[in-house]
Every structure is written in structure tokens, then in C-alpha cells.
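Quick note —
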Amino acid sequence: MTLYYEAFTDPAHSKLILILDWTITNALNTYSDCAGTRILGGFNAFGRLAQARKFLQLPPHYSIYITMEFWKIDSWDGEFLFIYLDGTLSFSSQNGQLGTQYCGQGWADEIQQLTITQPHVFQSVLILITTNLDSWPDDESWGFRDFKLYLDLCPPGCLSCSSNDQYMECLPWILVSSAFLSIQSSSFQHDGWSIINGVQDSTVCSNIPLFGGYNKCAQYSLITKVIELPSHYLLKIRFRVAYIDSWDGEYFYCHMDGNLMLAQSHHHSIGGGISNICGQGWDEYFPNYEVIMYHQKSYLIITFSTSLNENFSNESFGIRDFEIFSYNPQICGNGVIEQTEQCDDGNIYAFDGCFICQYSCVEGCLNCIDGICFECDIGWIFKSDFNTCIAIVNDQKFQIWEECDDYLNFEICKNGKFICPSNCLICEFGICYDCIPGWKLIKQQCQSTCGDNQIQILEECDDNNLIRFDGCNKCQNDCQRECSYCFRGICLDCIYGWHLNNQFICETQCGDSQIALISYEECDYSNSNSNQVDQCIECKLQCCHYCDGCIYGICYNCEYTFTLIDQICTPVCGDGLITIEYEQCDDMNLIPYDGCYECKYQCRQYCKLCIKGICYDHCEYGFYEFDNQCITKCGDGIIAGQEDCDDLNDNQTDGCHNCQFHCPDHCDQCIEGKCKLCEPGYALIEQMNICKSYCGNGMISLDEEECDDENNEDGDGCSRLCKIETDYQCKNFEYSFSQCTYSKQPRFYLQFREERDQNQYVTLLFTQQVKNIEKDSYSKYIQMNLVDVDINIYKLNLIIIQDAYDYVTNVEYVVEIQINATLEYRPILEITLDQQLYNSEDAILVNQYDQIQLRQPKYLDDQKLQAAATLTQANEYIMNSMGGIGILAFFLGNSFIFSSILEVLQQQSYLRFINVIFPFNLFIYFESSNIITIKPILQFFRIDSIQTPIYDSIYIKSYEKLEYYEINADLLTNIQTQVFLLLILFIIYFSCISILHLIDTTKIESLVYLGRFGVKLLFQIKKQCLNYKIEFRKVGLKTFLIANCWDILFTCFLQFKSSQQSTNFRSYICLILAYLILYGCLMILAQFVNKKSFIKECFINYWISKMDLFFSLKKLIFIFILVCFQKNQQIQTILLTFVCQIYLSYVIKFKPFKNQQDFFNHIMMEGSAFIFTFSSAIYWSQTSNLISYDKQVLLGWLHIIMLLFVLFVNLLLQVFELVLQIKFLIQKKLKKQNQENLYNSNPYPLTNLMEFKL
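Predicted structure written out below.
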């Protein structure tokens, strides 16, 4: 037994992922890990309907042996594992819930070692592994690994064998023909096979190539070939058949030389476990068949056919793995001398007296007769006892004259000397380098060139072409194709059905009762019965009359005007074609009396003179001639023909309509169009022959009345016109009046919610709580559409806030609208509800349709979005750099740089709250302003957790643009940052006081231990604490206010505007606190105003000295306008522009700065704010409709560039200022070190300390 194939045996997990060309179907995953082992399939991979298939080609063998490791996982409850080989169930096992839990959902698992042994002799095998599990792989699953296939191979040299065959028993079986063996579609050849009545092509069915197959070979199709065979008397034919799709008991036939050798019925329910792998949705079947038959002819005509009765797309078939073996027991080597054999010693060894069943000399013999040696060659000794030659063993070296060994180099060595090979012109040491004319050097050997029109030594002929059957083929004598025995180009015998004439040419003779092979003869029944002779004329099978395409007695096409029906060419009446001798006319209808009826001429009824469908009579009274027909005319007052009546009108209510008796509407009983009794709710007016409803009679007329409450009054639910009034529900009763009750009906409406990013949001609301009586989700009944907008440029997404259920709830939906294009108009969103909703009293919706006008879409393409994001990122880098420089400057003692940077960043961050709709690129830019916050610092020190016990943080909704940015209007929450900063300032202040007190109370003796460096450090700490104490008492709160006035004022004004939304105790506390903070800020600012200084100083110097006052007032007014005028964008923008202009004029006029750098920085900052607020008028609702959105985006780019430029210039100026300060500190430090080096070491280190204490 030989291991031929193995898979999934490698313990490395990565190699198991490659499934080695196995076909996996109906699986969720390919592999899984279970208990540290990776398996093919497994948990959540192989479950219900999962299959694993492998198609293998095999060498000659007679048995298959398969081993594998099977994993049963989770809740198997009696299901089976199935393993099929070539569609035959070879193994099955039932599995339960026994075992040990390894993986999966907690059920018991089991690992089984399976072994399968089965006789098998075919060229290929189709392996299928599956189960009948009925759950998905997360409930019950399976897998396998360590798959191995062993073969019991045939003896060497045997191409076909059985289990008990020995070498000499299987050797006579010779493979004489094969086809369709490849498993690669690229190398799948037809090899002369033909498909009749089908498509001459191959198909691939789940990686398995087939000849024929789906939609190629089906009803009436034949697969056939004529195969030439060597001498034999027994044949063994093997092939695989593919049954595809809906076979329902039809037969598959195999004919050999016209004899039926195999008839196999198949039903699609017997699919060998293979689910639908090609074709339609039916199972396939791929069995192997073997046919053994006695046969001695030199050829075999094989034909495959079926009894299929449906079209190609419903059921089809194909073949592959075709092999023919012939049995010829006359084999050299069987130990028996037969026919032309001189000897047979039962082996294939040379130089033993018999080789290839012919006498030969023994090794070393020079002359022998019938295998008996009489003289030995040089170097051999003759032994007369056994007539053998024994080699001389004592001359182990070449003689001096020897160049080579004649025995070892028999073609290029003679008498110990090198010679040129045959037909060689130039050679050296027996190696040829050039050949004589007419020969070609190939691999150092001279070979004749066939096709050069010259006959060389080994050539029998050369006709300078490659045409077969013309007398010479491949430079060998050849005969015509129909010749069965050819000798030197002369045919001596012909194949079946052909006769050799005097010129040695094979010809056919129709009438010889033989159907000649490879000919145009289809039949030959000269000696058969008369019926067969009638079907065969001139050796051609005859079809029905009028057949235009006849092949093997089967008609495929009829002559013009005939139609093929059940192999009979029939004229079809009604096809518009006139068939002579069968039809007179054909008007493609079955209308009588129209001139042609049933393809015969026919005139109108009662016509006396009819010629070719045309009546030459005059019409009777009441009839009129039209298109050679006498017809009646309804409405002429004459009752004729099929007319019941004719009242000269078209009134439907007078009893006669379209010349037929007609009962009036709502009539229950009538006679000849006269109503006798009306339906309930209607009254009969005999004079007018109508049934009329009366509103108010208490009877419901369903087609005309919605209700009838037995009165003609409005306002009681049923109007005077018998219509149900709004907000009423009426119940109608048979033969009684309606009862109406008041019930407020719900309605739905659309409300614009917000516009965020490039999306708009619309809320779908209802005036009452409603419910859905259906069981499924109501959201699928909501139809959304944008009116007159291309559907390819927008997307609508329905977000369910509260869906409708079978009980009443506050139903709410949000529609997300994304428009990926710029529109010049405001689109309209329309909503239609395809299903009714009901309130608690089962009142239906008043409306099921509504629409709302959206805002003009703001769209930026990907390139512009990328550009905006890049500028935003640059803005963040600049802000982070400025923040870092400011912090560094603050620790170096220059708080002015820190406050200046903070001022620029805060002012630009508050520009986003101007209540206009910015273009999307500018909106993206302003998103970077969110980084201007110290909330991460507060979260790091957990300040929020410290403040939580004091007061809780709540969220109070803002309004307008502030609501869009989700700004919290709660004062106590917003001042956390300022409280934290103020707390830090006071902690530092009291810490400095404590440090000063500690230093002042320290004794001099205690400082001796600090040393010189310690004392020096102590001096510096005291100096810094003293400066901070003086600075804090003098301008501490004022500096804090100036640095934080943006946030403090914004928080206070926001609390004022939002206090109306809440009236609880907390809101009152926040409102009072806001007033106190604002009052405190004003009191601090009042300190800037000093009447005495105004009198003492000149006018200009006074305005210069009060810069902080004007700057703070500018912030206060700016924030007040920004917050309090949110609902009027025009006034807000104008006032902000005016404030910026006044302050900019003050800066330009008085230049209240120490140096030109500060003045230039302030001009840029305030100038950019003025330009931004002034140009924001373009974004007003009124003006934005006049300017295209692309131009607004362009202005947004200009705003972004301007704001970035201001930040960048400010960054450069602050870097320059910081460099100068660092340079000054370094120079000061170096100067001080130089001064210390001028003095010697002081032997009294406490001198300075004593002076300090004194």
C-alpha cells in the first residue's frame, strides 16, 4: 500500500490555511482553532449544508484506503457524517452528545480516527465529505485534519488490474485510447470527439472539466467518435458521466457499434450527496461506469445519448475520464512461444540467448546460431560446455592502440578507433559537428529533414507537404483514410463498408447492406423490409416531406411556410404565411366573416356571392357595409343582428346601453333594462328608470355616501352631504343610520432640525401618540424623495428615534440628507407614508404626505475637503507652537508674551459664534479652535471630581449658533476653569507670604548649613516671592480679569440670555452670581478711570495710558453683541464691525504700545477681526441666495488664509521677542560670572547674609 496524497497534516497553523485545492461550499469560515489545534472547518465554520470536495487523478491501482481525523463539535443529536467516493456512500456514522468539551459552546466534543477501504480501479476519484446537520455552525459543527489516501498499485508495467492480478495476468491489458483525463480546463482536449445536436464545447463544473455539460449537451444530443484499434478480441471501456440538473427518471445510453451496451436511469434526488455545483438549483451526480465486451473489429463506433425531454438549461449531461483497454494475450515475455516468436524465455533481459522473443547471442559472443554461441569476441573466452563467453578479467586497461571500446561506443567506435556517426560529415572523437547534405544536426546526431522534397535513407517518400492521406505522410508511404491495410503507399484492404477497386482505391457502394464508416452513408437497407427502404434513399435516412434540414433521419428545419412539430413539417394556420396546396389565405386571426377564416376564404354571413373573401351582395335592412362586411350600427334606431334594443342615445341609466339591455346603477332587480327594485339606501324613480340615493334617510349608499346620520346638519360628525367631518369617526350599520363620535385625528409634520457638516437633518413628528397595527417595522413604509433632484447625487438615511409599535408611543424619525453636489436652489424634501397609523382611539392620520424646503446644500469635493483639512492641521500646529512659546515666556518672567498669545487665540476662536452660515471649508477650519482650552489639565488634576461635591454639572441648552456648537449655558459649569485659575493664584500668593515669613524668622546660625549655593538660592526665592506679592496686591485681579475677560463675560451674558428657559433654584443662583461677576468686573475696570490723572496728563497721554481699559471695554461690548444679538444676524454683524472699527481707529490714532512690534501685531489682529466681521455680511441669509456657493467657498479660503497669516506673523514676532529675552538673560548671566571671577574667594561667607539680615 502506497501513500499517494495527504492534506492538513502539517502541525504549523499557517500552512493549514491553504486548503490545497479542496472545494468548500456553504461554510462560514475555512478553518478554526480547537484546543490549540487548527482544523479544516470546525466551530462556527462547517455546519448545516457544508461540504468539502476533492477531485484527484490516480495512477493504475485496484484499491483505495483513506484515513482521517474527524472532529465532532457541540450539540449533535443523532445526525450523521457521510463520506462519498464517486457518488457512492462509502462511510457513514451517527454521532450524539458523548465525549469531552474541547471548544465551541460548551457541549461534549469528540475526535474520531476514521478508516475507509474500498475497491477502486478508475482513473480519478471524487471525494465528498458532508453531514445532515440542521443547525448553523455556532450550534453544531464539524471539521477534519490529517487526511491521507493510500493506493494498492498495479504491478509495474500494468495499466489496468484487479486485486488478484499478477504481472503476467494484467500485462495483456493495453491502453489503446483515452480522452478527457485532464483536471485543468486549459489542457482539456476534445481529441476528435463530436457533439451532434448540441454545442461542440467543454464546460467546467465546480473546477471539474467536462466534455459537453451544462447548456451544451442535452435533449437529442449525441456524443460520438470512431476509434481505431489494434489487434484484440476483448475490450474494457471506462468513463465518468455527469448527470446535471433535473433528471427525473430519464435514461443514459451507451452504444458500441450500434449495440446498446449500457442503459442507466437517474433521478435528481439521488445526487450522491453533491448539492448544486453547476447549472440550475438541482443536485448533480458523477458516477463511473465500466463496460467489458468481446470485440475483434479494427475500429469501434461509440455513442453516448439520453432520453432527456427538456431544454438545455433544465437538464444536461457530460462525460470525462474516458479510457479503452484491449486484451491481447499474445505478449512477448509470457514464457510461451506464439505465432511469430522465435523464443520466449519469460524475461526482458538481453544477451541471454533470447531478446524480444527473437534469438540473440549471449554476451561476448561473436557468432551464434539460434541463440547458441560458436565463437567469442576479442577479450572473451569461449566455454564449450555451456556455449557461453566469459570475459577476460586480467586486462583491466585499454591497450595502447585503443581509443575507445567497440562495445561501449558501438556507434562511434570500430576496432578501438573513433569513427564518425552515420551521415556525419565532420566529427572529432566520435562527436559530430556537421552532417552531409540532406541531413540536419540535432543533439549531435544526423537526422533526415522531412519535407525538403528529397528522399533520404530512412525516408520512404517526401512530397514536400504535411497533407495526410495523399500517399505520403511524414516521409512515409501513406494511403487514403479509408484504407485499413497500407503497404508502401498501396492500399491492400479497406475499412468496413468500403470496397477496394482495381486501382487500389477504397470506394463506397450504396446498396451493399453495409453502412460505410467515415462516409456520407447514413443507412443501407437494400435487403430489408419495404418500410425501411422507404426511409432510406440513396443511403440517406429520409425525413418527413417539406424538411429542409435532415440529419440521420431527424429533421431540424422545414421549408418556408412550414413549421416543425413532432418531426413533421406542418403548415400552421395563423402564422401569417400562406402555404400553397394547404391554405387559401392567412390573416393571423380566428375572427369569422372577416374575409378569411381558418385559412379559407369566407365572406360575411348569409353572403350569396363570395369571391376570394369579398362579398358582392348588398346588405340587408339595418346592416351597413364596412370593409366588405355587413355590420349593424348601434344608435340608428333600428334593432338588427345581435342588438337587444336601440334608443338612439348613450345614456347608461335608461335601460338600454350599447344596444343591449342594461340595468341602471344600484338596481337590484330589473327586466329588459327596466328596474323593479333598488339596492338598500336607494329609491326608484320609475319615470327616469334610476336608483337615487337620498342623504339624510338613515341608509348608507356605499358608493356615494361615507355616512348617513338621518339628518342634514353639519357639525355632528356627518355633514349635510353625508361626508365624514374632520376629527370624527363614524360607524356604519347595515339597514340603519351612522353613529359618529368626536375624536381628534393625528397628523404628521416635518420640522427642520439642523445643518451639520455637509448634511441636513429633518425631524418627522406626529401631533399625537400613534400606533402601528401591522407586525413589522413601520419605517419601511416611509417613502422619501427630493423633488426634481437627480437621485444619483443625494442620499437619504432614515434614523429611527422611536419606531411605531402595536401600542401608542411618541413616534419620531430623523431624515439625514446628504447632497453631493452644489445646487442653485433650495431643494424640497417630500415624505409619503404608505401605511396608516392610529391613535389610542383608532383614529387615522389626517395626512399621509408632507414636504419641507431644505437649505441650499453646502458641498465641497474631496480635493477641497483635503485642502481645508490641511489648513486646519497647519492652524493646530501654529496654535500649539504659540501655546508652547507663551508658557516658556511665562516661566522666564515675561507674562506679556503669554497674555498676547492668549489674546490672539481667544479672539479668533470667538469669531465662529457669529450667527451666519459659514461655508464648509471655513467651518472645518474653526474646528481647530476647540483645542484652546485647559480642560485636559483640569481632568489630569481631577478638579472636576473635587468640584462635584460642591455643585453638580448640568447641561442647559443654548440657542441659535451657540446651540449648534453645543455650548452649555450653565454658569456654574462654565466658570470651573476660572475658579481653578483663581484658586491657583491665591495658593501661590499665600505660599509666597508663608515662604517670606519662614525666611525672615530663620536664624542666621541655621543658614550656615546651607552653604554658599543654598544661601544664594534662598535669596532668589525670596526675591521672586516678594515681587509676586507686590504684583498680586497691585494689579493681580486686574491682570486676571484682562486675561480671562473673554470667557468670563461670555459666560455671564450667556447665563442672562438662557435664564428664561429654567426657573429652578439653581438658575436663580447662577443669575445672581452672573450679576455679581459682571458687577465685580465693572468695579475693577472703574479703577482705570481716574479723574485726577485725566487732569494732570494731557489728552493724548491719558488715552494712551488707558489702553487696558479700552481693550477690556471692547471685549465686553464685543461679547455682549455676540451673545445677545444671536437672533438677528444683520444687527449682530453690523455692531461687531462697528466695535472693531472704533477700537482699530483708537489703536491707529494713539499707538499705545512700547515698540513697533507690538503695534504691528495689534494692527494685524484687530484689522483681521474688522475685515472678517465686515465681510461676514456675504453669509447673511438674504445675500447668500444672491451669491453662488462656490464664490462663498472662495471667500472662505480668503478668510482662512488671512487668519492663518495673522497667527503665523504673531508666532514669528513672539519667537523673535523670546529669542531676545533669552539672549539678554544669557548675557546677564555671563556678565555676572565675569564679575565674580574678579574677586578672590571670600573667607567670610556669611558677610552678605548678615547684611541681608540687618
